[in-house]
Amino acid sequence: MARSQQASQELTQVLNDLWRLDTNRLKPGRDYIISLQGKAGYVEQGSNYARDRARHPLFTYVDEDKLRSIETYSHFINLLDNYEASTGVSETVTSEELQENQLFLSAVMETEVMKHAHQYLIRKRMSPANPDQFRNQLYNIWFRLYHRERGGGEDSSGFEHVFVGETKGHEVMGLHNWIQFYLQEKHQHVDYKGYKARGHKETPDEDDHVLNLQFSWKGLVKPVGGSFIGVSPEFEVAVFTIIFLMSTEKMTSVTVKVDEYMLELVVYRHGRSIGTSFPKLLSSNNRDL
Q1: Is residue 84 scored above 80 in pLDDT?
Q2: Which of 101, 121, 140, 218 could cysteine-pair with 127, CB 3.0–4.6 Å?
């Protein structure tokens, strides 16, 4: 068997293991309900206008008791107001925010999802076995501040870009997390414009756990952004940490089948940290999950 094929099979196995272990994943139709509505149109490069193909929000309902009661979700939500959205503006991290970062990592590391990911990374010699050293590695990957704007201060981090979202001029950057999307939509900061189809799948299903979306945030249009829907924070952190550590290349892209979804998982590196990471839904069989 070719080494690359074996590596692909190993990755497929571990990502599907993480999917099965994600017991904190919310169930569509019960824990949350989404309304896909229309297929989003084309947005010209540099344009800040998108025709709205969705009169209503994406999220019709989310069980907020689940968001409050599941430890990783509640700690995750506490992090979402810790950042300045505009790039080029230096972040100021308080001692309370540093503690919130550590509480989130501690909660994540206690989950079966992250324990399994850690064991895999130890076997592949990509992470230290010592839990404290592994926590430091996760911190550097996700929370270490860096310069995204040349000549500016430390204005960004992997966590901020991927999970919270940023703006740069007239551009929305990142914001690939469904919890942040839901909360921003609830407070009328996000306007969902419609879904974006990819590959052979022209119509996604409202039970799908991965979607390609078009939306505006803070008055700026995101032509397309891929997001997992309903999955736990620990699942996303585990998956993209593994992809990040697989390669030292500037960009790593893998195509893998996770459960019933054919996905392209993309990670961009920013030194020792994640620059961005997101899933692209290529196809799904519309099976009720």
Answers
A1: no
A2: 121
